[in-house]
Structure formats: structure tokens, C-alpha cells
Design goal:
Helix content: over 70%
Largest sheet: none
Shape: globular
Number of helices: 21
Low-confidence stretches: 430-457
Radius of gyration: 22 Å
Mean pLDDT: 79
Strand content: under 5%
Number of strands: 0
Oligomer: single chain
Length: 457
């Protein structure tokens, strides 16, 4: 496979990721807004907290494989054995985590003084099926099979949403609504699993020849490097998760009260629309693009891939920034209180800056510069220590906005540190030259010919 083919697959993957994310967001915002109107405050808080816990635990049990699978998927001699090993390990970790998930759900139900403790089993079912879906999605996306999986996911998601909205308008009982939402999600995930697994098996013959070409020169110590990479990415994911919404919503609910947690969730969800739009549109395609480009053994192909990635993200960030500024100009129509408007603007701008610098973190990951990565994560560790002792710090209770600003300052400090390290370690990668000279790198015939020749050798 030539670099041009990889770039084409990357573009297709990004387009299908955007289609899936936009569909998901439209459906999720519609459902969330409808539930906010129709459900009592405590029931809505229960639904929000259970979902936050589910996706937080899914992040924690990922074991870094969300990044390591696309990084090494083309470097193993046997694709089928590689996929079998990934699925087996992930399922074992899932089984181990189920009791911890159940006790956490029980705690949330008790914290909100709810009597429907059996809802924990429904949450556990969603957690289990979502974990399996995540494994399958990761495998599809690692091999640039985004279209096949995303199209199927969109169809099932629309069908699920149609059933949920029908229920909301015909069922007045809040408890029944909560149960049905989790049950319908479980069945939708099961249907996606049942259809997508045979589809992946059917597509394996199209992947194997490409992988065999790459393993001829990249088979040394692959398993050891894969394990090291997975552990590093897992630790990084856990460290970062303590500044994410899915942790902060239950934390604020516990440390302060549900009302403040709801304000944070509302403002953060609106800001996350733009950040997630960028992240989910790119997905794991950035790791696949850079890792597969690095297999050609020349800096020309890798630099061209980096340029394509950072230009794509810059365009997405610019688009998101324009919309954020437009919303801020007419914030009186979007936000009920000044606090929500302030939180939205602060978090949205910080998220955009952070997204713009993400390619430099991917460089350090792909090149396996673990020391630089962990030095860059020091601000996250500082915030983690702060959160652990937050009950003794007046900042959290007296100035909630100051606490959120502090969290984002730490996130940005980490991003800037990592960017500096990426420049230091790989000084041929600069943002402005990459953005301005996109066509010079990708479109000049001599360079293009050189890349093609390298791929043939």
C-alpha cells in the first residue's frame, strides 16, 4: 500500500467518523433535553451519573488498547491471532471489572437516595455491551474500515432513538422510562455486536495481505513494544480521566451537591460538543495514519502524514471556533444564567486550543518517547492531588469557576509542554510550516514520486 492510499483511507475514515459523531450528538442532545424536561431532577441526575460512571469505567479498563491497537495492528504476522488476543484480554479485564462497576453504581443510587437499586443491573448490562462494542469499533477503525462499522452503528442508533422518543411521549412513569432507556441501549448494542462480528471476519482477507508486507521489516520485538505502549497509554488515560467530565460530574455531586454538578454538566456538555466533534471526527485515524506512514522507513512519508493530520485538525478547530464565537455573541438566547455562559466560553476555548496541539502528542506516542510524555503529564498529576484533597481546599466550594479554570490551565500546560518536547525531539515538525506548506509536501511531483518509490522497495 502506498502513502497516497493511506491518505485516501484517512480522509474516508474522518468523513465517516464525522457522520457517526454528528448523528450521535443530534440523537443524544435530543434525548438529554427531552429527559431534562420530562424527568424529575433526581431521576435525571441518576441517569446522568450512571452514564458518567459507565463511560469512565470503560475508559479505565481500556488498558491503552484504544491507541495501541491502531499503532501496531499492521505489524503482527497473523492478523487473526492478533485480533483474537486483543478480544480475549479485553474480555478478561471486563469480567474482572464488573463487580467494581456494580458497587460503584450501588453507591451512586444510594447517594441520590433512590429506591430503585435494581437499575444497577441495567447499568451493568449497558456497561458490558458497550465494552464489547468498543473493542469491535477499535478493530474496525484501526484498519480504516470506518465506513462499514459507522454506517451500521448509525442505522441501529436511529432505530434505538425512535423507540426511546416514542416511549417518552407515551409513558408517564419516570422509573419505567429509566429502565427502558438502559434496556433499549443494551439490545441496540447486542444487535450491533451480532452483525458486526461476522462482518469483521468477512473483511479479514482484505486486511491480511497489507499486514504481511509490513511485518517483513517490522516484526522484531513487536509484542514487547505493544505491551509497553499499551501500559503507557493506559496510565496516561487514567491520569487524564480525572480532569474529564465523566469523573468530575460524580465527584462534584459527592463533594458539593447535585445542583452545582448539573450546572457544570450542562455548560461542559455544550463546550464538549465542539471538542468531541474534533476528537471523534479524527478518532483513532490519526494514530493509524502516522503509524502506517512510519512503516515506509523515510521521513518524507511521515512528515506528509503529519502535515495532513495537523491541517485537518486546524480546519476543524477554526470551524468550531467560529461557531463558539457566534454562540457567545448571542449567549443571552442560549444560556439561562451568567455562570453557565462563562463556564461554556472558558471550557470551549480551552478545549479548542488543546485539540489544536493534539498532533504533537501523537508524535511522541508514535515515536514511543515515553519519558517526554510523562513529564508533560505532570500538570495532570498536580490537579489529581488537588482533587484528592479538594474537601480541605476552599477554592472548590467558594469559587467553583476558579476551580474549573484551574483544571483547564493544567490541561493546557500539559499540552504546551508536550508540544515543546515534540519540537525538541523532532525539530523538523513545526505547526506553522506544516500548515502553510501543505501543498508543497503533499502535491509536489518529485516528493510524491519519492514516497511511491520508497513504498515499492
Amino acid at each position: 500500500m502506498s502513502p497516497e492510499n493511506i491518505f485516501t483511507q484517512f480522509d474516508q475514515a474522518v468523513n465517516w467518523n464525522a457522520a457517526l459523531y454528528i448523528s450521535y450528538k443530534i440523537i443524544f442532545i435530543t434525548l438529554s433535553a427531552t429527559l431534562f424536561i420530562m424527568l424529575p431532577t433526581n431521576d435525571y441526575a441518576l441517569w446522568a451519573n450512571i452514564n458518567s460512571l459507565i463511560y469512565l469505567f470503560l475508559l479505565w479498563i481500556d488498558c491503552g488498547m484504544r491507541k495501541s491497537v491502531p499503532r501496531f495492528c499492521m505489524q503482527f504476522n497473523s492478523i487473526s491471532r492478533f485480533i483474537t488476543g486483543i478480544v480475549t484480554v479485553q474480555l478478561l479485564i471486563l469480567l474482572i471489572s464488573i463487580p467494581w462497576m456494580y458497587y460503584s453504581l450501588e453507591y451512586i443510587v444510594g447517594k441520590l437516595h433512590h429506591q430503585i437499586h435494581s437499575i444497577c443491573y441495567c447499568g451493568l448490562a449497558v456497561f458490558t455491551t458497550q465494552a464489547i462494542v468498543n473493542i469491535i469499533r477499535s478493530l474496525f477503525h484501526s484498519y480504516f474500515l470506518n465506513k462499514q462499522f459507522n454506517l451500521l452503528a448509525i442505522i441501529i442508533m436511529v432505530a434505538e432513538m425512535t423507540c426511546n422518543l416514542s416511549l417518552l411521549f407515551f409513558e408517564p412513569n419516570a422509573t419505567t422510562i429509566l429502565y427502558t432507556l438502559f434496556i433499549s441501549k443494551t439490545f441496540a448494542d447486542l444487535l450491533l455486536i451480532i452483525i458486526s462480528v461476522p462482518l469483521l471476519i468477512q473483511l479479514l482477507p482484505t486486511i491480511t495481505p497489507q499486514a504481511r508486507q509490513n511485518t517483513l521489516t517490522h516484526s522484531n520485538n513487536t509484542t514487547k513494544r505493544f505491551f509497553m505502549y499499551s501500559c503507557t497509554m493506559w496510565m496516561a488515560t487514567i491520569i487524564k480521566s480525572f480532569t474529564e467530565r465523566n469523573f468530575l460530574v460524580p465527584f462534584i455531586t459527592h463533594a458539593l451537591n447535585p445542583e452545582i454538578a448539573n450546572i457544570f454538566k450542562l455548560s461542559n456538555d455544550m463546550a464538549l460538543v465542539f471538542y468531541r466533534f474534533i476528537l471523534k471526527t479524527i478518532g483513532t485515524a490519526d494514530t493509524s495514519l502516522l503509524s502506517q506512514s512510519s512503516l515506509f522507513g523515510n521521513n518524507v512519508a511521515f512528515n506528509a502524514a503529519f502535515t495532513k493530520l495537523i491541517t485537518k485538525i486546524a480546519h476543524l478547530c477554526l470551524f468550531a471556533f467560529v461557531i463558539i464565537m457566534a454562540i457567545n455573541m448571542y449567549r443571552i438566547y442560549f444560556f439561562d444564567t451568567k455562570t453557565i455562559g462563562q463556564l461554556f466560553l472558558i471550557t470551549a476555548i480551552c478545549y479548542i486550543i488543546e485539540a489544536l496541539l493534539l498532533p504533537f502528542e501523537r508524535i511522541l506516542e508514535i515515536k514511543e518517547n515515553y519519558l517526554y510524555l510523562f513529564i508533560g503529564y505532570i500538570p495532570y498529576i498536580v490537579i489529581l492531588i488537588l482533587i484528592l484533597f479538594a474537601s480541605n481546599i476552599p477554592t472548590l466550594s467558594s469559587s467553583f469557576i476558579s476551580f474549573i479554570i484551574l483544571v483547564h490551565i493544567a490541561r493546557l500546560a500539559s499540552s504546551f509542554l508536550i508540544t515543546i518536547f515534540a519540537h525538541k525531539k523532532h525539530n523538523n515538525l513545526t505547526f506553522f510550516t506544516s500548515f502553510v506548506t501543505k501543498r508543497k509536501i503533499l502535491m509536489q511531483q518529485p516528493v510524491k514520486s519519492h514516497i511511491t518509490n520508497c513504498s515499492k522497495n
